[in-house]
Amino acid sequence: MQGENGLKNSNHPAGTLRFTSRPSKVAPLSPSCTMLLTTSPQKQIPISQPLDKTSTNDTVMNIKKSITYLAITSMIFTSATMASTIYVTINTGEVWTYDTSLATGAEIFNSKKVFVTGQNNPNGIAFDAADNAYIVNSNSNEVRVYNRHGSLLRTIGDSNSLLGPSDVTLDSNGNIYVANTQSAVSNERYISKFAADGTFIKWIASPDNNYLTAIGITTDSFDNLYVSFPGGNIAGIVKYTSDVPNGMQGDLSGGDINGVGGLAVDSFGNLLATAALTPGPGGDAIYKFNTSPFPPATYDDFTPGSPFLIDPLGIATSPDGSMFVANTATPGPGDDVSRITKLDANGNPILQWSVGSPEFGRFLAFGPSPVPEPSSVALLGLVGCLSLIFHRRRRIARSMKDSPVNGTSATVFRLTD
């Protein structure tokens, strides 16, 4: 018969008390929560043990497992997404994200999300250890800092510390370095250094007046700083380190890389540089430098004349060594859509996806998956699981209080909705 509080009871052989439950008809909040909230059916529990303690603890233990599973799943998802989400600064004043874990260019294209809008000629982008995005706004001489939800935290720099900034990077201490296309004081100061809190520290000089217009900038795992200088009488990549006087170690390239642009260090410690050698398709390349020892004996143009590189600028690398390059020009008549190209670690093209027209990508960086609220899905699941714990424990406790149990007979209690 139907008992109080929606409980059904029936007779059962003496000596044991059997507690069974069935899934609630309430819409599940997550598969893991639904699965683990349902206790094993026909579980035998000795009469000598209080039913409300044993069965409830069993249910609570399962729910704890559910919550742990949910948290681990959330962390795995976040980690996997962080390794595959690429941010691209767009010439129309926006920053977009794409999921590069997808198999085809079409799928990556369809994964596009808008991270932020209203940027003032955005260029370089980098991330700190707290997953905050640093976005260069060239026309306003500032670097805007956003959290992973796209909320503006602060701005760094002004016309006294940045002059036509192009790219940004951070070292392991959180110091911020910005490459500028215009110089301060003389034609030798193109790099701005800021403390982690955004306080301007100093200008860093280029080798001499032959190196004009800094474009790309990056750091390696040893906090060595690399800066590309495509303008002036010499076009090359300069390495800075604290181990030599004035921090300047010299030109990696010997000053003969025309159109050198974006820089990145891959997971193997190699320095990668894009080079727009000639206008249009067919004359551009990516250069690879083994930076230790210095200077490198050789460096490799391993994508000569690639039709998949058309005035390349920004470059980013994934943990497996794959390269992603933003092309700032289109193939030509009949095809006015710019693209981002993915290549393997050996420079072989894998796929491309369209950015648009007149939109095109400039600089790229891997970062966290942007979300509206931190761990909102996991939070919702935990709240739902805890709510179910509370209500089920109350119903079990009430049923134990109202149901007689003696030494020769027992009652089976089944939860109903």
Helix content estimate? 10-25%
- Compute the number of strand runs: 29
Oligomer: single chain
The major pleated sheet works out as: 4 strands, antiparallel
| Overall pLDDT confidence | 75
Strand content bin: 25-35%
Query: N- to C-terminal separation?
Result: 15 Å
Explain this structure to me?
- With 417 residues, the chain is of the alpha+beta class.
- 18% of the residues lie in helices and 35% in strands.
- The chain has four helices and 29 strands.
- It has a four-stranded antiparallel sheet with strand order 6-5-4-27.
- A hairpin with a 6-residue loop joins strand 16 and strand 17.
- Helix 1 packs antiparallel against helix 2 and helix 2 packs antiparallel against helix 4.
- The two termini are 15 Å apart.
- The N terminus and C terminus are likely disordered.
List keywords for this structure.
417 residues; alpha+beta; 4-stranded antiparallel beta sheet; 29 strands; 35% strand; globular; disordered C terminus
